Amino acid sequence: MTVYGRMYLIPVFLIISIPIAGAAIHVAPSGSDMNEGTETSPFQTLGGARDAIRMMKQAGTLPDGPIEILVHPGRYPVTKPVEFSAEDSGTMDAPITYRASETEAPRFSGGVVLGGGSVLEDPEVLMRLPESARGNVVTADLAAAGVTDIIPFELGGFSSGRGFKTHPAPELFVNGEPMVLARWPNEDYVYTGEPTGPQTLRTWDNHPGSPEGRFKFKEERPARWVEEPDAWLYGYWFWDWADSYEKIERINLDTGEILLARPWHGYGYKEDQPYFALNLLCELDAPGEWYLDRARGKVYLYPKEPLDNAFVELSIAPFPLVKTEGLSHVRFQGLLWECGASDGILIEGGEACRLEGCTLRYMAGNGVEIRGGSRHAILSCDIHTLGRGGVVVTGGDRKTLSPGEHLVENCHIHHLSRIDHTYTPGILINGVGHRVRNNCIHDVASSALRVGGNDHLIELNEIYRVVLESDDQGGADMWGNPTFRGNVYRFNYWHHLGNPDRATGIAHSMQAGIRLDDAICGTLIQGNVFHRCSTAPTLFGGVQIHGGKENTVEGNLFADCAAAVSFSPWGEERWHAFVEKAMDAPEINSALYLERYPALASLNENHDINTVRNNVILRCESLFLRAPDGIIAENNTELPTGSELPEHTAGRLRWSEEEANRLGIGEIPFPNIGLYEDGWRVLRDGNWSLRTSTP
User: Fold this and answer.
1) What SS3 class is residue 51?
2) Which of 390, 419, 441, 483 could connect to 448 by a Cys-Cys bridge, CB 3.0–4.6 Å?
3) In this model, does residue 4 exceed pLDDT 60?
4) How far apart are CA 256 and CA 112, in angstroms?
5) What is the Cα–Cα distance from 342 to 317, expressed in whole angstroms?
């Protein structure tokens, strides 16, 4: 717990208790839903077990006590969503548990297995391939694999006119590695030429842009795409934090223009913005690239190595693999969901459902989404290799400040944002009163956390290698509402953020550990470690505060950052205009908010005033960037360059309790940050893994 003024930590390490089952039902790939559900006569699907429980409830033969559905190892094809409703619920004293029967995780797949294929010999198709690829590309027939309905190509992105949501998309995986849809350039980006529409848009620095999707191209390469039937571009068209996919309508070689199909990008287009082209058969020229020929019903792959013993799978399920509505007191343990062309698991309403020790991977969309309900928990799960974000959590009521109490704990969430690169974080939380703790989040193109709402607790998480591409972002990002209050970030380790080595063409200077953007107020940032979170030249520090006030940054360590805390002050006029009607917003109860957050009574006063105190600054170039007048800065210690708390070879800090006490940061529980061992997770040879194996 935390007593403000001094911190006390009680580690919250989950103890898993599985009650003795009142009944056991078996599911196996070799079973049948016409069977009895016994060990020797198992069902074949989760739906079969679910229906058996429904029938027992209706007949009044449901045994007392908890019920276990033992799911045996193997691959379970998912051809339609597995749906659960309120009638499938357990109770607090008698939960229903679907769990792995053995140490090998059962695999629920939304994909179809393709054979090794044959070398592409169709002369018409070969002529469209780059010469270097001919003889190296293999093909597989989708009809022969049982696929007759092929998902159309349509993608979105944060500012797409097609909507910022999961757009189902088939993907090809070889031995679990996602192949790259044929593109140019094969790595990095090229840059737009001058927009040719009316230049009526202006950036903050008066750079002109156009609302219309047409621009000059700088390279000769687009001439090769003229005959492509379904060519698309992906890019950051106006701002380096707002991406979208844009369909090419026409390429005008006479004028050197690319004309994009409507609907256009929401923010418009300007010159020198990064983009690449994709879904181009004529660009299938590198090992690891693939193309889906929808007209012929064929998959073409330029393999990285011979496919003789490879497991090749195409995701085809354009729906969440599991959907629950109103479900309560049901647990899923040790199961694996993969290869979905959309999202993984959708939980709507209900209460106290739990995912424990599960794996979600190889999806085109999000891993898990919780919409409403209360007290759902995602515990000790591995969530990775996704086209969008890891976990999306919404719950609680901002009007009444009633907490949703959802929990994400001890999860390893990584390698996300493969399709939609921005605003698809490891964990996105909205609403009131959720907890995010002891997770490890890394390798994300934008933020690890996106937070909206009130009274959330984010603690003991390790976050690194995020904000790898997007600009004007933080490892944790909040935005745009001065009534978001009561949020706490404590005891987290933020390190090696952004792209400081300029390893790709997308490398920016506005990336931070925690970013409070556009009037975020009343946030406590306490006892965190910010290590290599900003690199000169930069506009951001380890913490970036843009226009907000009454935020407290205290007791943190800032190490090897260009600056500890940066500010973008708004000034009185802009502040007053922004907050003038904030307390009249229909989604809040102003009287309740004034009672819960008394500082809101003076919301219009003391703009840009924040508190930074009792922090230790180690090997940073400066304490502040652009600090406003009136900032409350107390007892911050800037240490000279030295060898205190050096880095491991891999870059993580070598934490010494003795040295931490000497530096005045001994209350940061550094050894307790990140993943921990429990009934589902184990540390083997220095790497965290689940006790249920994932073949």
Assistant:
1) helix
2) 441
3) no
4) 41
5) 7
